[in-house]
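[job 0412] stage=complex_fold ligand=cytidine-5'-monophosphate status=START
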Amino acid sequence: MTTAIKFWAVVPAAGVGKRMNADRPKQYLELAGKTVIEHTLLRLLSANVFTAVAVAISKEDPYWPELEVSGHEQVITADGGKERADSVLSALKSIRDLASDEDWVLVHDAARPCITATDINLLIDTLRADEVGGILALSSHDTLKDVQGKNIVGTLDRSHIWRALTPQMFKYGSLKNALEIAEGNPAITDEASALELQGLQPKIVEGRPDNIKITRPEDLALAQFYMEHQND
Ligand code: C5P
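[job 0412] stage=complex_fold status=DONE, emitting structure tokens
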């Protein structure tokens, strides 16, 4: 008997977000009446495709248990790690008895609260028959410079350059394996790079530009603007 392939969401949410200069990690800042992470999780849950969402939270985080969503029956809390990749690996391990190697995992930053069901479904529909998996990405509209110090030493061919967004969608078994092999490697700043290190070539799926990552204070106002204008 073959078991049906499941979809899991993994949300790394154990960062401190230094560039926000705020009194708390950026995922707990308020945006349109809720915290950033509540928007992110409620959007993932309401897409109705995930068996559960595993969220990696720092052990010293006093904010998470206060949120109603932390007790949601489809939300699993895992310990965060030193780097983003450690947090993702920890969340994957927290569902090891529930997930099978062939299940799909969509890893999504807690700090991207404007994610839409449209983009989640586009990623899944494009990649569910793929061998490797892939990521939402955006092409670059700006000319990109190679800079050393303050000096431009070259101009990159932007036709080959894409900005990696999340979700990033990979098979549970191959993602866990790739992250375990890459553990401690500072070059692993997203899931795709761990698979690339194995010689694999994840696909890109063009995503929506409103799927921004909250990084700097002004991003909160921009996210609010996008949310008010999204109707899907
Ligand atoms: O800092 P940056 O915006 O790149 O972080 C991306 C995501 O990874 C955020 O949701 C952040 O909370 C998470 N993260 C994590 N564990 C870390 C560092 C970052 O879960 N050690």
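The helical segments are 36-46, 84-94, 117-127, 172-182, 191-196, 218-229.
[job 0412] exit 0
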